[in-house]
Amino acid sequence: MTEPQPTGNPVFDYKAAYRRSSAAIQKWLLLLGLALFLIAGNMALWAQTESFRQICGGVSALGLLLFCGGIAWGFFWRKKLRADFRREYGPE
């Protein structure tokens, strides 16, 4: 992954590659989790057999877990980036 060109503003230049990769991880966790939850949940509603319904329910729960993990990851990496920036450049 190439490092973006510096803008001269330390807020935007500080760990830009980390910010870009963390945002991509968060985006894919949210999208994959939402897709699994919706698709498997819908399949569980229309399942003909109980075993297939349980499998779809488990996959749907996994999707919900991924979605919540994406939200938690977003809070974590932003808090970490903010703390590191304040440690280096001061509390302002």
What secondary-structure arrangement, pairings included, does this model have?
Blueprint: H1 10-13, H2 16-45, H3 50-89
Helix pairs in contact: 2-3
| Average pLDDT level | 88
Our count of helices gives 3
User: What is the CA-atom radius of gyration, in angstroms?
Assistant: 19 Å
Outline the low-pLDDT stretches. none
Largest sheet: none
Report, as a whole number of angstroms, the end-to-end distance: 30 Å
**Topology pattern, helix = H, strand = E:** HHH
Shape summary: elongated
Written overview of the protein:
With 92 residues, the chain is mainly alpha-helical. Helix 2 packs antiparallel against helix 3. It starts with 9 loop residues before the first helix and ends with a helix. It is built from three helices and no strands. The protein has a domain of 59 residues.
List the keywords.
elongated; mainly alpha; 92 residues; 80% helix; 3 helices
Give a brief description:
The protein has 92 residues and is mainly α. Helix content is 80%, strand content 0%.
